[in-house]
Amino acid sequence: MTIQDYANSIMGQPYKWGEIDCVTTAMTAVNIHYNTEIFGDVERWNTKKQAVKEYAKHESLYKYLESSGWENVEPNYMQTADVVVLDTMPMQTACVVVNNRILVISQDSNMGVVMATIKDIKDAYKIYRLRRA
């Protein structure tokens, strides 16, 4: 399965903690792209309470990625499997780049998972790329 196959398979699906939530979809897509478990230190969840507890351990998505070997990249250099972190409240939102589009969990619960462009993003954001040795 490719990252595009994964994106296609979840398109339009509704939000579900531990399956179709922003961080889970971003982690799954990145793991598929690199064909390895990149986020082995992150405990998985099935409920909002479990997700919030795990999020709190890492303080923020920015801090987690920056301390885990990810580097900040400019939007014009984004590429597949980069993680886009939206500065939303009360917690940041994780998205992933798939072939120059961004896999986003829509805030409109009727839309579910959608593909967007960087120009569609209205919140402040940072883009991260895994540093590979």
Structure description:
The chain is globular. It is α+β, with helices and mostly antiparallel strands. Strand 3 (93-98) and strand 4 form a beta hairpin. The model has no long low-confidence stretch (mean pLDDT 93). The protein is built from four helices and six strands. A six-stranded antiparallel sheet has the order 1-6-2-3-4-5, covered by helices on one side. It has one domain: endopeptidase domain like (from Nostoc punctiforme) (endopeptidase fold (from Nostoc punctiforme)).
The CATH architecture can be named as Alpha-Beta Complex
Helix content: 25-40%
The string of secondary-structure elements, in order, is HHHHEEEEEE
Total strand segments: 6
Please summarize what this structure is.
By secondary structure, the chain is an alpha+beta fold. The chain is built from four helices and six strands; from the N terminus they run ααααββββββ. It is globular, with a radius of gyration of 14 Å.
Question: Strands, helices and their partners?
Answer:
Elements: H1 3-10, H2 22-34, H3 48-58, H4 61-67, E1 70-73, E2 83-86, E3 93-98, E4 101-105, E5 113-116, E6 125-130
Antiparallel strand pairs: 1-6, 2-3, 2-6, 3-4, 4-5
